[in-house]
Structure formats: C-alpha cells, structure tokens
Amino acid sequence: MRLTKLSQKTLLIVAVLFAVIAATTSLLSGWELKRRLTDEYRSKGIAIAKSIADSAVELILNGQAESVQATIDQFLDIPGVSYVLVKNGAGEVISHTFVPEVPAEIRATANEPKMVRATEIEIAGRGRFLDVSAPVLAGIAGFVHVGMDEGAITAVIWSATTRLQLLLLGIFVASVLAASVLVRGVAEPLTRLAGYAGHLAETGVEGPVVEIDPRLLGQRDEVGALAASFRHMETELRRSAAELKHTTAEKERIESELRIARDIQMSMLPKTFPPFPGRAELDIHALIQPAREVGGDFYDFFLTGDERHLCFAVGDVSGKGVPASLFMAVTTTLLRAAAARSAEPAEILAKVNRELCRDNETCMFVTVFLGVLDLETGEVAYCNGGHNPPYRLSDGGAEKLVNPDGMLLGCVENATFRSNRLALRSGETLFLYTDGVTEAMDPSGRFFSDERLELFVGWLRGATAQNATERSMEEVRRFAAGAPQADDITLLVLRYVRV
Amino acid sequence: MESVDYNGPTVTSPMRTLGAVLALLLAAGIARGADDLVLGMSAAFTGPSRELGIELYRGAAAYFDAVNEAGGIGGRRVAIRAYDDGYDPGPAIENTVRLIQEDEALLLFSYVGTPTVTRVLPLLRHYADRSIFLFFPFTGAQPQREPPYDRFVLNLRASYRQESAALVDQFVRLGRGRIAIFYQADAYGRSGWDGVRRGLAAYGRVPVAEATYRRGTSFSESFRRQVEIIRAGDPEAVIAIGAYGPCAAFVRDMRDANLEVPIANVSFVGSESLLELLVSAGATAGKDYARRLVNTQVVPSYDDTALPAVREYRALTERYDPRPPAAADRDYRPLEYSYVGFEGFLDAKLLVEILRHVRGRLDRRAIAELLQQPQRYDIGIGEPVTFGPDRRQAVDHVYFTHVVGGRFVPLEDWREFAP
Description:
The complex is a heterodimer of chains A (499) and B (419). With 499 residues, chain A is of the alpha+beta class. Chain A folds into three domains: 152 residues, PAS domain (Beta-Lactamase), CATH 3.30.450.20; 62 residues, no CATH class; 227 residues, 4-Layer Sandwich (Phosphatase 2c, domain 1). In chain A, 48% of the residues lie in helices and 21% in strands. Chain A contains twelve helices and 15 strands. By secondary structure, chain B is an alpha/beta fold. Chain B is built from twelve helices and 14 strands. Chain B has a seven-stranded mixed sheet, with helices on both faces. In chain B, strands 2-1-3-4-5 form a five-stranded parallel sheet, sandwiched between helices. Chain B has a two-stranded antiparallel ribbon with strand order 11-12. In chain B, α6 links the parallel β6 and β7. In chain B, α8 packs parallel to α9. At the A-B interface, α3 and β2 of A face α4, α6, β7 and α7 of B.
C-alpha cells in the first residue's frame, strides 16, 4: 500500500504517541509493581517463616529432620520463595532446601535476634534475597530462615511489562490500522481531488472537460464542499477563457477593420511619387507615419483646374484612431471641394471651417496649413489654420513662416482666416510637418523640439523633396531611438524649380 | 490418571494373550464385584523413579496372582488399584483421597517414596475413623515409624536410619571415619542424612562434607559441583541418599574426578537400575564405574536361593511375569529380578499372611483389630518377622551388597573397602 503524505504523518504521530505511552506506563507500572511486590514478598516471607516456626516446633524439638524437610519443601512451590532453612536450638542446620549446598553467606548468620527480622542479603552466584528469620520458641528451639528471591520480583516486573508492551503493541497495530482506514477515507478523496486539479492544470481549460468523481461531490463534508468549489472554479475558468477568446477575436476583428481603414485613408492621400511626371518645376514628396493604425494626420496636394496652380496642405486632426481618421477624411474632401471653387487659401479654409463646425457635436478640430503655388511665378498664397508653421528653405537659411497665425478649424464657425503670400525662387523649398515631429520623444522623455528641427532643416537646403522627407524621417527615428511613437508624424516637402 | 485393577493371573505365553483378553473382560465386569479385596497403590510409574514403583508392583503382583489362582483369600480375589504419582507429593495426596473415598480401598499398599508418604500421613490421620492402613511403604523414613503416624502404618523394611547407621558403623570400623554425604534435597535425603549424622554422632563425629541435588535431576546432567564440594571435605567414604539416576551420575562424576573412595547407596536407590546406568556409562567411557560401591538392602539377596522366599519369588515371577501397571510408561523394560521386586513380593506375602489371620468378615475394622495384637509370621527369609502395636516395623535387618560379575551380591568380606 502506497502511503499518502497525510497517512505517513498520521502514522508518525500515532507511533510517537504510543512510544510515549509505552515508556511512561512501563516505567510507572514497573515502579509500582516493584514497590508492591517487595512489600508482598516481605509480608509473605514473614508469614511463611512464622508459620513454619510455629507449626514445626515439635518436629524440631524431636529432631525429626525429614518431617521438617517435608514441611519446608511445601513452601518452595510458593512463587518467590527461594529457600528455607531450619536450625535447631544448638545452631545446627537440620533441614534446608539448598542445592548443592548451603551458601557460606547463610551458614555465616549468627547472633540471631529473638524476633522476626527481614534483611537483604547477596548470595554469590545466586543473586539478591530477602532473608526472613523467625525464632522457634523464642529462639530456644532454633530459627527458621525463608529466602525470598528479589530476582523473581525483577522477573515478574519484566514479564508484566512485556505483557503490557505486547498489549500496547496490539492496540498500536489496531490503532494504526484504524487510523490508516480513517486517513484513507479522508486522504483518498483529497488525493482524487488533487489528481483532478493536476489533470485540469495539465489539459488546461481549453482541453476536454475533466470529469470530477460524482462520489466526491456527493460527500456531505469539507471534501464535498471543496469538490463543488473545484467544479465551480472550473466552470468559471472555462467561461472566462471563452469570454477572453471572444474579446480577443473581437479586438482582432476591429484591428483588422482598422487596418482596412488605414488602407482606405492612405488611398485617399496621393502616394505616387513623383505625382506629376513631366512637370519638372514641381518636386514634391510626402511621408506619413501614423502612431496608431489609423492616424489623424494628413497631407494632400493636387493641381487646380487650370493646371497652373498646385494646392497643397498638411493637417492634424485632434485625437487619433477611427474618429480622427473620419474627421480627416471629411476635412480632405472638404478641402478638395473648396479648392475647386477658390484659389484663395483663406477662403478655402474659412469654407471648410464652416462646414466642419456644422454638426460637429463631438467638437473635433483640425489644424491645417494650406498653400496654393503658382507654378509659373513661384508665388505661394497660404493660410495657416492653427498649424505648426512650415519652414522656407532658401539660400538665406531656414525661415519659419510664422505670420500670420490663423484659427484652427472646426471650433469657431465664424472664424476669419487671412491669406499670406510669398514668392519662391527657383530651388527654394517649403518644409511642412506636423507636431508629431517636434514632439517626438527619445527614451529619456525629451522632445525633438522646434530648435532641433530648425537646425536640421537648414541642412536640407538644395536637397530633393524625397531626399529631404526621408532624411528627416530618419533623423526623427534616430532621435527616438526606439522609444514608442506618441503621435502621427507627417512630412511634406515642396521644392520649386523654375523651368 | 489411569486406573488399573489387577485381576487374576496372567499366565505365561502362549496363554498370555488370552489372559490379557480375559483380564480386560474381567476388568469390565465380573471381577470388579464388591467382593474384591482392593489394595490402593500410589507410586512412581513414570518419570526418573519409575523402576521402583513398577518393580515393586510386579513383585507383589506375582504373589497375588498365585494367591488369586489358588482361590484368593477366603474366596475373595486380591486386586491392586494402582495410580501413578510420579514420585510427587501433590498427586500422591490426590491419589490417596481418591483411593479412600471413591475406590473404597480395603487398605493402602506399597507406596513409594519419602516425600510422598510423608505428605500422605496426615491424610491417614484425617481418615482415622475409617481405619485405613498403609501397609509396607517403600521408604525408610522416620515419620511413619514414630508417633503420631506410626499407628496408621505398618513397615516391612528397616529404616534409613538403620541403613545409614549400619553403613557408618562399617566404615568407621574399617577406619574410614571421614564420611561425606550426598543426598537428595527432600525428606528422603534428609532422612538418610539424619541417619548418617546420628550414626556419626555416636562416634563423636560429624559429616566432613555434604552436597545435595534436586529431586528429578537426570543421569545426563553433571554433578561436578557436588563432587567438588565432597572433595573439599577430603572424605574416606561417601554415603549417597538418592535415586538411581542422580546417584549413578554422581558415582560417574566422582570416578571421573579420580575420587576412588567407597561410595555407599541405600536400598531406595534401586540397585539394579543404578548398576545398569553405570555399566552402560562405563562401557562408553571405558571405565569400571561399579567398583568400590556398597549398597545396603532391606531384604535378603534374591540370589540367596537357600531362602524359601527367594525360591518362591523366582518361581512365581517366572511363572506369571506380571506386566507393569497400565499407568506406567509404555517404553519401560521390566527387570528379571530385583531387590525392589523382591521387596514387593515380600510385602504381598506378609500382607496375605496378615489378611488370612483376620477373623470373621475381612474389612478395615477387622484388620485394625488384628494389628492391635502382637504378630509373628514366617515369610521365608530365614528369620521370623514380628510386629505389634508398639513395633511398626517387621524387619530390622540391613543387608550389604556389592557388585560382582555385573550384579549386586551379598558382601561378606569388607577387606576390599579397607583403606
């Protein structure tokens, strides 16, 4: 039988308990037995000695040695009586029971008192005895000696203790059996429960349902309650796992939809570069790096109906995700629609603003920098709706187009916008970006910053549009050094080359 | 314990088988009539002293067979009811009570042993109103020869005191006054010890050494300790009061220890059994253990065919060859003749003589009345036996024997034991 840990512990406790009981009872009973037996032997010896001394007076006086012998021989059958010896009045031994001879220790006894006396004596080779002497006729007719074997006391104690130990051993064995049955009764269901739990852990909640023993569930005790709890736990686990799975699937579905949304969004932005092959005067390139799957940044450019003007814009919708992207889609659509009717940036933005403000319950807004380039003259009319001011890269360096700053779109319906103008000379470049660039963070939390950008774009002078966007994006990435991207990053570079 | 009745003669083979069948039939019914003269016997039929009880029984049975065959006593058959006591006082007492109360024995006959008989005596006193007598116990102890028990017992044999005193007299006369005693640690041994002590006291001497052994010790055990105790006394002779097994072992160990002083045994030892053990042990050891042994007997030698009783004993024993009692060990091989058997024979012969002299209805009271008178009989041992109310022992003679040619024979010339 393989013992469970519980059984082993119980067995150990029972064994220790019994060892303690056995030791203490043996000691106590042995001590008590010795005391009582010593008393009993003493009184027994005295009684026998006196009885012989009284009953054998005549035999002793008459010198009937064999009758005295027959008398004393009877007492040897009494447990504990080891020897009897009778002396006559002259001090001669007339009968005794010693084999092969009277020990010197007994022969030597002389000057005996005239009363019953018990003394402990040691007889070489025979052991310790309680020698009881009783006078016959006050000692005139002789003395009777009765020897009580103290070794017999020890023997009795040993035999009694042995029997006691055997009894205890029997009880011990019975107890162990009973305890093992009881413990098995308790431990076995627990073992089965533990097995169930282990099995559950092995197969997991995804695996086939682990059947719990119905007998365990039927038990009206803690084990039964535990089994019920286990089953409840399994059910809950399975339900949570199913929910988690469902949620995960849902999330994946949404993410996949978001991917589609991004595709749609991206498809809305011009992505073919160069966009106008054959228009050498126009070197334009843009990059967008959304922070999430669907971002709120956008850029756009298109030729107006007269083919002479290029409308370009960079914007940043507040917030991210699907709502921002939708808002962005609306914004770009409105921009294109408005740009088709007017070449005046302020007018376009004002119109778009009005449209966006209408029904904008969620109060989303968008910053937009919009410019219109006259491809023949290089003149750029522009209007900034709350957006980061772009840089003009010329021989003089990088110049921020700070003035004037207009209102962002989507919040104030009657906001007014004012266009500004500048004239690009051939080879000059406009560098448009969103705040995702300046607010890009390195792992220690520092921003890329306007200063760094201004310094950096100064080096982009004379570079092609594509070269400028790619180098800039690379610079931002290097700065971030792997730190997570918090916002969309959008770059649009326009280089005017007079034909 | 098994009850055994002795029922009539068992003739010698080939009629023996038929006799046994008849005996069984008789035991079953006919012979157990109230008319039987039932003699109660408790003796050692098993154990280390069984030879004594069995041979005593066989000797007596031989004579009773003859009496019964001749028509019994006054027409009544003699039957021995024999129980085994194993030479143990306890069973001896139980057997006696049973014999008196249940079996209603006419008398008790040929008990064996001092410790047994000594303890039975108070019972006889208890049953004094039933006039139950013990005839011829096989023991030389004093109690049944002295008040208060002498009036319930009639002895045939001389006492241990007489045997011991006779030995002491002989040894002192030979110049072997330094006498040691080896004896059985019980009433029998004590009786012999007392006899030796008293005998020596007459010469102003005491035993030079004494050693005991426990009753029932077997021949195979060592008696070296006793030998050493005896040797320490530097004795010129040793008197042994014991049973044949231990006494033979003692002789063996004495001789093995190169102590060659004469060793004397008394009648109770069972001379033939003693010799048998010594001869067989001597044959193994290549020694003559039977040398320098003196055994006293209380009956004449069964080789002395000049005596009518010896001739009769031999003739009847040969004719009837009685089987051991049923209570005896099955493996026992009966002796041809023995001092013990002869004593049993003489017990039976004297008892029959006494019973024949009872006048009127033969019962306990009539026997008691007869024993009140001085009696004198001739049982064929060369001298008449006498007893009466003041003399409870029929024979005083002590016979000395020694081993010649593998048997104990009368010792006539003591010169071989001279120093």
